[in-house]
Amino acid sequence: MSSQAETTASAPRVTPSETISGLHALEMIIQGDDAILDILTPLNKRLTLSTALIGSDKQEFLLFSLPHLTCQQRERFLYEGFRLVVTLVSERGDGARLRFVSRIKHIITQPLAMLVVELPSIMQMTPMRQENRFDLDMSAHIVMPNRKVEVQLKNMSVKGCRFSYDQIAPSFDVGAKINIEVISPTSGAFSLSGMLKNCRRYRGAAVYGMQFTAQTQEISRSLLNELVFDGQKMTFAQHVDASLLEA
Questions:
Q1: How far is CA 104 from the centre of its chain?
Q2: I need a surface site. Which of 15, 37, 108, 197 has the fewest CB within 10 A?
């Protein structure tokens, strides 16, 4: 949910990172990714907005949703040309936090409130995870007391996964403990237990990040060992019936 906070600006903390080009960074972000915008005034006042990436023209500009602001906040912070610091959270691959300095290029109020921000030539990228996370597109089920809810696993590592389901399914609270069942064509069911760490909406679907329990990490490692790369994502290996080969 979008939010804002007004403070006096201070120097950002230094964290290990690497520099990448702005155009390269576009390959790492998708519509709906979480973002934090720190708008800075010439008098060193800061307005922090929690928002989301709407999209880009893939060349010069990024578009961000603009949450509701008070009249006073608009008068003090919302001007074209004002400097801002953008922090984007990318869930692709191993996950990364992208940070860059830019300026407000345009302010759009109708029909949707948006900020158009200049795409910088470089960004700072900080990895979010220590373990490799592999892209998937695999059906699974959340096991509930009286039913099973079908979900799609979007990526997975030994320590966690990201999954999505459509908006008509029941919602879950961040912090809830759940169990996901994945069926292997050769080994049967894998039961993955853990805690929901975050949630966001993307194109009408709820997308959750889940952290596995210590016991589940051995199960997830076994599951990953059964997967092969098909050129785009990890999937179960296709086994050919021996009787067909003999024929």
A1: 24
A2: 15
CA atoms of 124 and 100, how far apart (whole Å): 6
Q: Are 46 and 8 in contact (CB under 8 A)?
A: yes
CB 54 within 8 A of CB 114: yes
Of 168, 153, 247, 157, nearest to 207 (Cα)? 153
Question: What is the C-alpha to C-alpha distance for residues 80 and 197, in angstroms, rounded to an integer?
Answer: 36
Per-residue pLDDT of the chain (247 residues; tens, 9 = 90+): 445 665 554 433 434 678 888 888 888 887 778 889 999 999 889 999 988 889 888 889 999 999 889 999 999 999 999 999 999 887 665 578 899 999 999 999 888 899 999 999 999 988 776 677 788 889 999 998 888 889 999 989 899 998 988 766 678 888 999 999 999 998 899 999 999 988 877 666 788 889 999 999 999 999 999 999 887 788 887 654 545 445 4
- Both tokens of residue 237? 């290996």
C-alpha torsion angle, residues 17, 22, 24, 27 (rounded to 10): 100
